[in-house]
Amino acid sequence: MDVQVIQGFLANGDQAAHARALQYFEQLKSAPNGWQLSMQMLLQPSVQDDSVKFFCLSVLEHYMKTGYEAAKEGDQQAMRTFISQWIQMQVYAPIPEKVFIRNKVAQLVCWVFLWDYPVRWPSFFTDILQTLSLGPPAVDAFLRVLLAINGEIADCEIPRTAKEQDRNRLLKDNIRETHIVDLVNSWYTILTTQCQSPAGVELCRLCLEVVGAYVAWIDIGLVANDRFVDALVHFLSLPALRESACDCVCEILAKGMDPADKARLVESLSVVLQRAGVLAVAEGEDVDFLIKLAKLVNAMGIQLFDSYSKLHKKGDGPNRQLVQSEVASKVPLMLQFLGHEDDDVSQGVAEFAREYIQYLKHEPGNYKQPDKANMEAVLYIVINKYKYDSSYLFERQDKDMTLSLTQSMISTTLQNWRSLPFQDVEVAISFLYLLGEAIPVIVYSRGCVRPKLYFEPELHCVYHMYHYLISSGVSTCGHPAVTLQFFETIVRYEKFFSQEPETIPDVLVAFMDERGLRHPSPSVRSRVSYLFSKFIKSHKAHMLNFTEDILKQLQELLVLCPTENGVTMSSLLSPDDQLYLFEATAMLIVSGQFNAEKKQLLLKNQLTPVMRKFEALAQRLPLEPSEEKRRDIA
Q1: pLDDT tens, position by position, 310-319
Q2: What is the pTM of this model?
Q3: What are phi and psi of 406, to 5 degrees?
Q4: In the chain, where are the structural domains located?
Q5: CA distance 434 to 504
């Protein structure tokens, strides 16, 4: 493999090197042994360059998506062996891999799981659990794999095809029946043995995230029990873990279950937390933790009101009275946080407060003396919140200082993004996005010509930061949060490209490769499809030289999802996402400087595969005996 060319895959601002790397990437993807070469490269201890690792992992990911399912048994076993060898390598590595590399590997393992479990690799969880004894790097890999698996089989916010839904249901059933007890026991072991060292604390945070993710679809009794609750209460007293523990408890409270059981769960957790003094707000307490506590109290209130509503519909009077009593006991907690001087803490329980007011409005019989006192307290809190803060500066806004500090933070982060946690990178790009709100766009809208940018200090500053966002390579970070914020920010500053059209090719490539429309995460692909359409609409005048290349790249994404036995098969984009791309292609063709015959040909090239698929389905529809399958085809 040509390592020198590969290093251009994450090149900062070197468009030629990046183009060569992309060409080599396409070459290896199509080569029969490209995935094997990439695997061999990754297992060489001498390979330390992150660009090379990310490149090779991307080749392997492409192979997993397109060739692994039908591969020979020996090739499939080679992939499973690679996973084991990679984990062992990390155990003895002197320096941990960057987070984006670890997440990329976890996604790769997740793809193996989706294809092989439980038929070809029934011992998947047994094997991966056995690696935990190898040490913290193996524990980290284990937890990231579990998060990746949960994201693929249980994330309700990601649209799924009928076939994927059936697959996910079977996978979850199998996990619940055969492995979940072992997994839960491993989580408890990690939480109780790893929190003594700084590295272990990070593993505990990751483990709490796993518990919070899985509790939505496993037996609540596996987590809402004495040993786990005792551990969570202990973590709520540890500054390094208490915020993560708060989030985990909130996920437990959000678990879907019978309303009466939910009310009892809320009350039991509330009693334990109050006895431990967790919900008592100490003077001078860390505001970040108070925000999390407010979120926890808010979750209690919202879940109680939800249970009350369901019990009311069922006509369950006794349990409804129980919930009313529990609500009354939680309102003082809500008022305590609502009246906090920090507005973010107050905002944390705002939903609880709104639901409480609605509850009293719709249930006038419940409006008793304590509630009158509570409403009076709410009113006074709101009045005080409307007052100007005593420290508010009416004359001096410190705009220059704010811009300077923000610029420094963003620039430093973009320069060092490879060595920073994804949270730091995401927040830097978010602040660049928000600068577009803080700095008036009227300078752009005046119809200023390009040199005007250099006479507006604020825009001069933003211009350089935005230019560096595109050239820094941060779009290759791989974490969905960073990727989404990158594209959101790209589209936010649409006027920039009118001044700097030469940056458009790099952005187009990012939109259409594994960073955007072909990203591993379905939620990222879905959002990017909309943002891409918006980007094309804003800059179609600058796309004239790229139209045909764009159309070729999009063609495979526009084919109707194939069907098998009336069930929609896997596709990179959902039908709704494809509509945005159809809109983008139509704008490109119509606005392009082509003659009528050329436009007709381009449209035909885009629509012919769709029409052929449509005709095949239309012919099959009346012949299908199953009503359910006919509905799927339609």
Answers
A1: 998 988 889 9
A2: 0.67
A3: -65, -45
A4: 1-67, 68-178, 257-387, 397-499, 506-634
A5: 22
